[in-house]
Amino acid sequence: METGKKNNNFTTEAEDRMIDEAFREVLNGYLQSNHRKKAEIIERAFAFAKEAHKGVRRRSGEPYILHPIAVAKIASQEIGLGSTSICAALLHDVVEDTEYTVEDIEQNFGKKIAQLVEGLTKISGGIFGDKASAQAENFRKLLLTMSEDIRVVLIKMADRLHNMRTLGSMAPNKQYKIAGETLYIYAPLAHRLGLFEIKTELENLSFKYEHPDAFKRISEKIEATAAQREAIYSNFAAPVIEKLDAMGLKYKAKARVKSVYSIWNKMESKHIPFEEVYDLYAARIVFECDDPSKEKGICWQIYSAITDIYRLHPDRTRDWISNPKANGYQALHLTVMGPDGNWIEVQIRSKRMDEIAEKGFAAHWKYKVGEGDEESELNVWLHTIKDILDDPEPNALDFLDTLKLNLFASEIVVFTPKGELLTLPVDATVLDVAFNLHTQIGCHCIAGKVNHKLVPLSQRLNSGDQVEVLTSQSQNPKPEWIDFLATAKGKTRLRASLRKLQQPAIAMGREIFAKFLKENDIPDNNVTITKVMGLFKATSREELYYQLGNQEIVLNDYVVKTLKRQHSATQRLLGMIWRRNKDRQEEVADEAVAQEKIGNINRKETYVLKYTETGETNFRFSDCCNPIPGDDVLGFIDDDGEVVVHSLDCPRANALKASFGPRLLSTRWDVTGGKFLAHIRIEGIDRHGILHELISLISSHLALDIRALDIRAEKEVFLCDLSVMVSDVEWVNSLCAKVKKIPGVQKVARV
């Protein structure tokens, strides 16, 4: 869905030709697919949408109708959807942006298309609103729609992909918000739906707008090493191709390069330079087979042929054919030692498996192979999502984080004592299994038996484990159990059970809070509760009430003074704001306070982060990621109107980008002094005198102030954690380069 539209009464002849050509591409692509040919209704939908959006332009200046045409093209040619979805994509903004209603759509195009357009209208304006509660509610609507008709979500994914492809015309702070929510929610959702190509492109585009310099640098290095990679792959593939040809197979063999985003992710998580990312590509073999029952056998024949030539890595074989992933992904993965001495992953798939992997299981599952297809793993996952939606988190960000657990989880397979198969995320525990089976089993779980051996309920499980849950009626759920759970379902059910147990204390706390407000003549609204939650570091209302009811905290005179001061400022602003009705009063108060705090900052312009030699600043550093001048950062305007600086890849910043878009700022540094703390990790081969050389280089030659130094040596290998005061990120890079020249040092990285 689009923002920043503008009206214009005409389109030029050239633009009309461009619109018709764009639509012809959609129609021709559809006519070449294996869907039933319903060109007439698609042409009618295009004409209807073109007339409805007449004179409206996108922020970039092009006619608005080009956006729904582009979304229809992605839905048809990149996801593989049919005429119903193409029509819905063409019409997806008509009800939201024009005078036409869902009834008009139904009258002209039938009930099914109208239902899809209505579903897309419900979740319009992006998943995330300006307020966390609205954001969580819209996300719930999206997920509920998935179980009713998954095509709504697939068209929404196409809409998001086109918006990301055209993000360059947006203001920098809008780019941060849209890229942030894309990486936080849409990319994991695409992954879960099996839309791997779209997931990869969404990640790359988000990365491009968040870290433009890093994106350009890595892209250039991939390009520069292309010839070298091609030579290595040809050398590796030659004997394999010879063997496969001798087997008489029809196949395609190719090298698939890692995406820019995944290379950067590996560099960041492993603290290694580009040159040390050895698995830059994977080899893929896709064979043709008309009989699905023979696919498994052919995969293992190819596996056998490859392992006859190259040495197999014993721990990196993945059989996704016998046990497909929850999103329908099937393939056989193995890792072998290549002729150049590096490990190379080989993915073996049939053409059918490859189509599911690239275009997505969702489209293939129900709307391509027919309505009568058996219930799939995806359906099971949708039921899990509904289970979470039945009892959503009171805190919107908790709700989203809980869902992310299920969206982007790597999977293991375990068995019950009766041999039933359970698919769980990596790091799942006995307690996860218990809550997966039933809430009551989870609440009364005391321990488990894994492969007939007694283990605690916190025991992490491995693929292939057989798990038995032991329970006791005297056992009750405990808050610390949340740390033992890896599944969204487990966390949701535990929190719901704890809330039931905590209800008496919560009810008492609610009474104490209401009485306190009444006695001190303080209004009971969202502003007040948010301020008190902030004072006591409570993450939700329930937590605040529970602490009050349990007498863990006390409301004193300091709280009264703080709230009175806040209330008087709010009242001055509320007098100037028109109230539409009484129900909107709290929302108006929220907006008034927010505007009072952030009204002096122009959020459309790049905010200059100033730090003078005297220590004066117009921002403060976040304590979660500790950025330093020169880092890629964003600004966030907090409740007190201060600009807080986060690293762009900080997990907390990701949540803020997804939830509080209007408070984000594009930033640039203007630092004329000051020293900042940086943490550096050094690894290498231990030898006599290396510590002395390190300290001498840092303190004498570079004149840096060491704040902490921890060095450990074990079996001739040393690890050093160093904290130093530096002026900016260039100092860190210079220090790392010089330390790496010390004989014996193998790796240096800021952490």
Task: Please give a quick description of this structure.
The protein has 751 residues and is of the alpha+beta class.
Sheet with the most strands: spatial strand order: 3-4-7-6-5
Give the CA-CA distance, first to last residue.
38 Å
Count of separate structural domains: 5
Output the CATH homologous superfamily of the largest domain: Hypothetical protein af1432
CATH architecture classification name of the largest domain: Orthogonal Bundle
State the share of residues found in helices, binned by percent: 40-55%
CATH topology value of the largest domain: Hypothetical protein af1432
CA-based shape: globular
> Can you summarize the main beta sheet?
5 strands, mixed
Number of strands: 22
Low-pLDDT stretches are 126-135, 365-375, 572-597
Structural class: alpha+beta
Average pLDDT confidence is: 79
Give the class-level CATH name of the largest domain. Mainly Alpha
- State Rg: 29 Å
Count of helical stretches: 29
Strand content: 15-25%
